[in-house]
């Protein structure tokens, strides 16, 4: 089986007895790697990766405490602090947790996803459960670790679901319980709240129901990358004190506008946090990343972050209204809960008014690859291949100017199709 993404070489292999495909594990040879937004387009108005379009909330560099600058200048030749207790302390305070023993830091949430699979799920024997449509790295990490995947789709019909949830992309609690009862090899349940690409939050009543379900002996992992956009009382962190089988993931990439520093967080009761700390790579968080995180977690920076969230939420509502005015050109109503910093909208067939993957993909490519006079490339994310997202593109809420340019260009592109 050829290595995916590697072009065959016409050069003879040296030494002749070596064949890399005989060394690499079969599940890795078969791996379809995660395709991140920047793999496709790097130029233009980038509304495809759900970054914070208003940027980070660290005030000017002169306002970062002097001791941080001095420490950074003096210590780049030294390995970083292996524990970063000050960062953990500030996160614990921000999220209402009692101590640093409830906080683990990873290189983005992706390290947490990979690490919790490696410490909990036996390769080739045990499984995880995911709820499509959802974040693609759960499945990629599972395949890399030779872990089975059980898929239990979210509610795709829009009808009332179980467990108190209603509407499209709500959690089908009873279906998850049935799946875990039928297969005791499921060790982890990954839930995304607000979901990506759904933008829908999971109600805590449903989450409690799963956590309390006695036949499931594993851990529920709730990915809260977008939680600061979802409003008060949406976070599952409030349940950590009551449930040792809960792990909440968060990040500084979204609301904090620090995607470049790759800092993810796991929040849980101390025994699980200790296991993650015992098994992580040494010195996983770099000194420059740690210094920027400390600056972002200062009170004035946190307030600025919250102010930017308010601006983005207002912009989200305005963008949703602007998209609704393009209905005559085949733009459907936004779907999902709209609880994050993005919107998911179907592009419709002009004749049938049904979601149209072909037209949607063409719109996506035209926005990113063509530009008229006084236009820029505009990059959104095609999501039509995801369950329940037929014909959809996902649009990150940009700045006011970016949103206006998106609407203007989208209107022109749709009119000529």
UniProtKB/TrEMBL annotation:
GO biological process: L-histidine biosynthetic process
CDD domains: AAT_like (cd00609)
The entry's keywords: Amino-acid biosynthesis, Aminotransferase, Histidine biosynthesis, Pyridoxal phosphate, Transferase
Protein's name according to its UniProt entry: histidinol-phosphate transaminase
Family matches, as NCBIfam families: hisC
Protein family: Belongs to the class-II pyridoxal-phosphate-dependent aminotransferase family.
Transferase is among the record's keywords: yes
Domain Aminotransferase class I/classII large: start-end pairs: 44-410
InterPro entries per record: Aminotrans_II_pyridoxalP_BS, Aminotransferase_I/II_large, HisP_aminotrans, PyrdxlP-dep_Trfase, PyrdxlP-dep_Trfase_major, PyrdxlP-dep_Trfase_small
Keyword Amino-acid biosynthesis part of the UniProt annotation: yes
GO MF term (any one): pyridoxal phosphate binding
Enzyme class (EC, first level): transferase
Pathway: Amino-acid biosynthesis; L-histidine biosynthesis; L-histidine from 5-phospho-alpha-D-ribose 1-diphosphate: step 7/9
PROSITE patterns reported in the protein's UniProt record: AA_TRANSFER_CLASS_2 (PS00599)
EC number in record: 2.6.1.9
Catalytic function, reaction form: L-histidinol phosphate + 2-oxoglutarate = 3-(imidazol-4-yl)-2-oxopropyl phosphate + L-glutamate
Cofactor(s) this protein cannot do without: pyridoxal 5'-phosphate
SUPFAM superfamilies registered for this protein in UniProt: PLP-dependent transferases
């Amino acid at each position: 089986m050829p290595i995916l993404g590697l072009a065959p070489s016409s050069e003879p292999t040296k030494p002749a007895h070596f064949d890399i495909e005989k060394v690499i594990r079969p599940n890795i040879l078969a791996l379809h790697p995660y395709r991140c937004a920047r793999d496709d387009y790097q130029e233009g108005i980038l509304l495809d990766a759900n970054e914070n379009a208003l940027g980070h909330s660290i005030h000017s560099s002169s306002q970062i405490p002097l001791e941080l600058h001095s420490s950074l200048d003096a210590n780049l030749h030294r390995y970083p602090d292996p524990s970063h207790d000050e960062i953990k302390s500030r996160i614990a305070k921000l999220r209402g947790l009692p101590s640093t023993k409830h906080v683990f830091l990873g290189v983005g949430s992706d390290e947490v996803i990979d690490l919790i699979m490696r410490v909990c799920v036996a390769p080739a024997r045990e499984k995880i459960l995911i709820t499509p449509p959802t974040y693609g790295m759960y499945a990629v990490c599972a395949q890399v670790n030779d872990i089975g995947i059980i898929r239990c789709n979210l509610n795709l019909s829009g009808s009332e679901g179980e467990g108190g949830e209603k509407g499209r992309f709500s959690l089908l609690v009873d279906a998850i319980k049935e799946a875990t009862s039928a297969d005791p090899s499921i060790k982890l349940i990954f839930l995304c709240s607000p979901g990506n690409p759904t933008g829908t939050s999971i109600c805590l009543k449903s989450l409690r129901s799963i956590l309390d379900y006695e036949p499931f002996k594993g851990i529920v992992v709730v990915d809260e990358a977008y939680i600061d956009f979802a409003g008060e009382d949406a976070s599952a962190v409030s349940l950590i004190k009551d449930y040792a089988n809960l792990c909440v993931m968060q990040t500084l990439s979204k609301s904090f506008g620090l995607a470049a520093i790759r800092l993810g967080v796991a929040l849980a009761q101390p025994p699980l946090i200790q296991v993650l700390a015992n098994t992580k790579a040494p010195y996983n968080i770099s000194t420059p990343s740690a210094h920027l995180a400390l600056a972002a977690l200062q009170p004035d920076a946190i307030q600025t972050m919250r102010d930017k969230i308010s601006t983005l939420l207002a912009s989200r509502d305005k963008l949703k209204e602007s998209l609704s005015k393009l209905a005559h050109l085949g733009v459907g109503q936004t779907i999902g809960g709209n609880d994050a910093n993005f919107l998911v909208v179907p592009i419709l067939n002009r004749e049938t008014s049904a979601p149209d993957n072909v037209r949607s993909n063409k719109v996506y490519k035209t926005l990113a690859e063509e530009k008229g006079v006084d236009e820029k490339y505009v990059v959104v994310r095609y999501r039509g291949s995801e369950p329940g997202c037929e014909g959809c593109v996902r649009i990150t809420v940009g700045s006011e100017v970016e949103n206006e340019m998106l609407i203007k260009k989208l209107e022109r592109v749709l009119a000529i199709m």
